[in-house]
Amino acid sequence: MSDHHQEYQNQLPICTVDPYDYLKIVLNPDGTITRNLIFPSTPATPDPNSDLLSPVLTKDVTLNPTRNTWIRIFLPSKTLDNNNNNNNNSTVNNKLPLIVYHHGGGLILTSASSSLNHDFCSQMAAELSVVVVSVDYRLAPEHRLPAAYEDAVEALDWIKSTDEIWLRGFADVSKCFLMGTSAGGNITYHAGLRVSAAVDELAPLRIRGLILHHPFFGGVRRTDSEVRLVNDPGLPLSSTDLMWELALPIGFDRDHKYCNPTADDGLPDTCDQIKRLGWRLLVTGCDGDPMIDRQVALADMLKKNGVQVVPQFSQGNYHGVELLDITKAKSLFVLLKDFINDN
């Protein structure tokens, strides 16, 4: 570390929040963690007759039994009604766009069945008239990165060839969008980079764009927003540091490409492929999020290098606001609908 960098670090405000207490985790001697923060969960409702008033039906399907990964499908119930009215003749013209969603949780917490993730996907499916596939990927530190990226790619491989009726019958896999919130936004970005070099292998699945919703990135050197919000009650800096320490490959710091894609101001070669494919990237954030500077920097870097980026950064609010206050999601869903329709 240079003298200048050390002097800069010494001038930073100190985060006073104990990250282990904040996250309610205990680090075990074998490198695993005990998670004591209980997130309410919501079961799937696969039977169309089990809740006739529900606007969205859900179903869980095993992805990889060896890895204990699975996906939850969200299907607008009106799609079944329309299909029945059409005498079960489902065509591509009346199939719905597909969003493959990756949930947040700092790469170490929550699942696709956690109520805040379930409710968000359910409302998104209803408001946007889309089929949502939410991926329950492996968590760190038991499964450090790139495990979550591998699970995200495996989900796409599964989707392209599955006989699952809700996808085969009602999802237009040629109009697919990868989306993630927070850590899921990070997964979406890196999974997108991985598959962009071999898109022909995903046919008939065709990705049209990536949606990074409050994406989770970091770095060694603090940004202005991280310094300003060092003790943010919703996402204190000490907690994100710990999440990255637990999620990154052992021996690497926060300037690893998984955490800091803008390190050295360089783009991976696969970004050229994203540019050639014509994928558009929607990047959303707000200035109440300690990571806003990193989100803006990523969007600027991609745009500078010719990637089609739609940046949407708002004033106020906080990290993950649309999940924690679902009433705030309406404006986001309008934005998502426009983005999907424009692709």
Model description:
- By secondary structure, the protein is α/β, with parallel strands linked by helices.
- The chain has one domain (22-342): Alpha/Beta hydrolase fold, catalytic domain (Rossmann fold).
- Helices cover 36% and strands 20% of the residues.
- Strands 3-4-6-5-7-8-9-10 form an 8-stranded mixed beta sheet, sandwiched between helices. A two-stranded antiparallel ribbon has the order 1-2.
- β5 (96-102), α4 and β6 (131-136) form a beta-alpha-beta unit.
- The longest helix has 15 residues, at 147-161.
- The protein is globular.
In short:
This is Alpha/beta hydrolase fold. With 343 residues, the chain is an alpha/beta fold. It has helices at 3-10, 19-23, 77-85, 115-128, 147-161, 165-170, 183-196, 224-228, 237-247, 270-277, 292-304, 321-324, 329-341, and strands at residues 25-27, 33-35, 56-64, 69-76, 96-102, 131-136, 171-181, 207-213, 280-286, 308-314.
Which features characterize this protein?
343 residues; alpha/beta; Rossmann fold; eight-stranded mixed sheet; 10 strands; globular; Alpha/beta hydrolase fold
Question: What is the radius of gyration?
Answer: 20 Å
CATH architecture title: 3-Layer(aba) Sandwich
Helix share bin = 25-40%
The CATH topology is Rossmann fold
Mean pLDDT: 91
Order of helices and strands: HHEEEEHEHEHHEHEHHHEHEHH
List the helices and strands and how they pair.
Layout: H1 3-10, H2 19-23, E1 25-27, E2 33-35, E3 56-64, E4 69-76, H3 77-85, E5 96-102, H4 115-128, E6 131-136, H5 147-161, H6 165-170, E7 171-181, H7 183-196, E8 207-213, H8 224-228, H9 237-247, H10 270-277, E9 280-286, H11 292-304, E10 308-314, H12 321-324, H13 329-341
Parallel strand pairs: 5-6, 5-7, 7-8, 8-9, 9-10
Antiparallel strand pairs: 1-2, 3-4, 4-6
Helix pairs in contact: 4-13, 5-7, 7-10
